[in-house]
Specification:
Elements: E1 6-8, H1 12-21, E2 26-28, H2 34-42, E3 48-49, H3 53-58, H4 92-101, H5 104-120, E4 128-135, E5 138-146, E6 153-155, E7 159-162, H6 166-192
Parallel strand pairs: 1-2, 1-3
Antiparallel strand pairs: 4-5, 5-6, 5-7
Helix pairs in contact: 5-6
Length: 204
Amino acid sequence: MPDNAVIGTASLRRQAQLMAKNPTFKCVNFRGNVQTRLRKLDDGVVDATLLAIAGLKRMNMDQVATAVLEWDEMLPAVAQGAIGIQCRKGDARSRMYIDALNCDDTHTCVNCERAFLGALDGNCKTPIAGQAKIIGGKVHFRGLIAMPDGSEVYETGNVVGEIGDAVELGRKAGEELKARVGEKFFKMMVEMSPQLAPGQVTGA
């Protein structure tokens, strides 16, 4: 995208990563269903927007995507796209049905990502991203935390470990990142986040 491009996104996490790549970008709070967002894009309200490719495929609309971002370009929210099912404790029958639906690799990756988020004590106003993958029988994890305006971004790099150690891998990655950024960073991040009101244009 060219300098000063206007990009529609309702995510502080995406905004932070976009503006870290190019601080001249202007990020506009962008909400509504897929058709509404695409119509705004066609009308020139924004120069680009970000949509889940899984959602576009589900609607047979993936042809509208001009690029699919990989994890070394932009990290997603922790556990994004994963479906969780809750049941009563001790309900063996429900657990039997749920276990049959479970994807072990996804479960492992989500647990790793959630441990990372838990160590950072993040919430919806903290731009935190993380994704775990199973590659070659090992857990690979990448995570980051950033200022909403992208002025500071701290990343874990590619952290690798055994599948059985996925939770510990995510937790340690979060603790190490938290120690590296320091308490001052978190205070500044919280102070900055509420200033980004819905519909507000941010950036240079």
